[in-house]
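Please, structure for the following, as tokens.
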Amino acid sequence: MTGRFLGKLNWLTPLLLRGYLGVTFFYVHGLTRLRGKGEIWDWGRAWVESVAPRIEPQVIMFVPPWIEFIGGFALLAGLMTRWAALVLAAVAGFMAYREVWRHGFTLPQGWSAPALFLIACVVLAIRGPGKVSLDRLFFGKEAA
């Protein structure tokens, strides 16, 4: 009985995943960094200066927030979902690698949160946007 009930809610899975990844992580983080506020920006600038001293920090700090902001918005809308999820998976993978390199496998600053976002993006890229998405509206059932 539970299986049948939950099976009817299968359409909700990608919607919840897109909402979580879009709002909670990528959209909020991207927008925060685009505004140039908070310790994320200060930490990121210091990290860029330490890792790539020959490259202007503003150049590197400009690209990822835009990727997160646009990708997060695309996930929320369900537009170009698979592509957005793949690009954001690459960003999350880089963050997971960076956190392991910097903090090791320990919590709270370790790799677990970025790795979770990486896995969730890969699942969304494989699963697709679902029934409630602009992809389905514009490109039909094949996209969903």
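The two ends are 27 Å apart (CA to CA). The chain has a mean pLDDT of 79.
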